[in-house]
Amino acid sequence: MRRIALLRGDGVGPEVVGQAVGVLEAVGARIGQTFGFEEAPVGGAAIDVEGLPLPPKTLELARASDAVLMGAVGGPRWEGLDYGIRPERALLALRQELGLYANLRPARVFGPLAGASTLKREVVEGIDLLVVRELTGGIYFGQPKGVERLSDGTERGVNTEVYTTPEIERIARMAFEVARRRRHQVTSVDKANVLESSELWRRTVTRVHRDYPDVELSHLYVDNCAMQLIRAPRQFDVILTTNLFGDILSDEAAMLTGSIGMLPSASLGGRVGLYEPVHGSAPDIAGQGKANPIATILSVGMMLRYSFALDAAADAVEGAVAAVLARGLRTADIHQPGTTLVGTAEMGAAIRAALPG
Ligand code: IPM
Ligand code: MG
Predict the structure, then answer these.
(1) CATH number of the domain located at residue range(s) 1-103+260-357 in this protein
(2) Beta bridge pairs of residue 35
(3) Residues near ligand 1 with C-beta < 6 Å?
């Protein structure tokens, strides 16, 4: 039995995780695999009961599991809290404690949704790219950090972008390895024309690339990459970048596909992988059965692929999502005239039913 920790979190998290669990169970029944689920509170839900976004028991459960499935954290109720105990801290702590240095965020445009993007159909049709974001280093964690009061009464806020060669090497290897399973093309994104840490990034990625002569490597400055993503997004296969640049570029890439409600993610690097939708807790529609469960369902697909090496099962999940979209079923975020509006549970049920026998 494979043990999966369920961290449903806040807002729409519990609803979308519920549908993803249903899909996982249905897949398991078809391929003779059993998945055991254990739950623990995280984010605002954990703050409410334990006073902390990531209680020790939740971390223990995650550590003892074979994979973690997470919903979303955060919401207006907890926004006034001190920085150190905000719901988002749970995510950062989980990434660090589980050693999840690699964040894989695929952005793929499903054919039937090419018209749902704010960009022209001919620009986005066929997009299939993967952002490989460094997740436990850079300015998110670098020292020194903080806000200090100066003697003249003004304040000074500091965060520091720091990367060491081992940190760059391992994420670069991850990007080259996944590129080998795709179209063999890596674009490394930095700001080497201005930042010293980026100069080291570019030099190190170039050195690691010598071990992957079958993969094509190019470099882009982050501002140019942001522009190219809008101008000609199909040029990209794997985008390799730092924690902060990856945070920004992955949201941009998400919007190319029409809705952030479609995008899954995997965080890898330690023994236990963490899988979650890229979208947030969407408190405005929480509990209404309206949320799009596809990002979380596709995250379960990534779990099957990356944690359990069940590639055929992962393909089956992706195929079922594509089939349901082709039939015209749409949640509100991707609804267009001429398609059928469904809720969270209906979408989940349709995807389960579309799994190959
Ligand atoms: C993301 C989110 C997080 C991040 C926040 C919620 C801490 O934006 O996963 O992209 O910045 O990494
Ligand atoms: Mg983000």
Answers:
(1) 3.40.718.10
(2) 2
(3) 88, 91-92, 247
